[in-house]
Amino acid sequence: MSPVSSGERGPSHGSLRVCVFTLVFSAVGVGILSLPWAFAVLGMWWGMAILILSGVASLVSMKVLLDVGRATGMNSYQDCVKLYMGSASCRVVEAVLFLDCFGATAAFMNFMFDF
């Protein structure tokens, strides 16, 4: 018995627009796609200031992480935290990273359902 004749729905097929947006979000990320909204809320000058400040903060944090990784020979962020702050702090960092990934996925899904 086919799903249509039994009253059940078959697999749903997404539209071309949803497929394209899913691929773009996966490749580019939700953050870059929300920049127009941020500039609309903040205005051009505050938006540029916050964007530059975020870029500088990202650059500094990546440089610090790279320097710590080279100095310790560690390959992961968690290993560096465990070395410098102990295993309890490492568990906290792992939980924060998990919540960050979960939040990014939730934001992605929220954005997609608004379409």
TrEMBL record:
Subcellular location: Membrane
Transmembrane feature ranges: 18-39, 45-66, 92-113
Gene Ontology CC entries for this record: membrane
Presence of the UniProt keyword Plastid in the record: no
Molecular functions per Gene Ontology: L-amino acid transmembrane transporter activity
Main location: membrane
Keywords, sorted A to Z: Membrane, Transmembrane, Transmembrane helix
Annotated Amino acid transporter transmembrane domain residues: 15-111
Membrane topology value: Multi-pass membrane protein
InterPro entries: AA_transpt_TM
Domain of life: Eukaryota
Protein name listed in UniProt: Amino acid transporter transmembrane domain-containing protein
Top-level taxonomy: Eukaryota, Sar, Alveolata, Perkinsozoa, Perkinsea
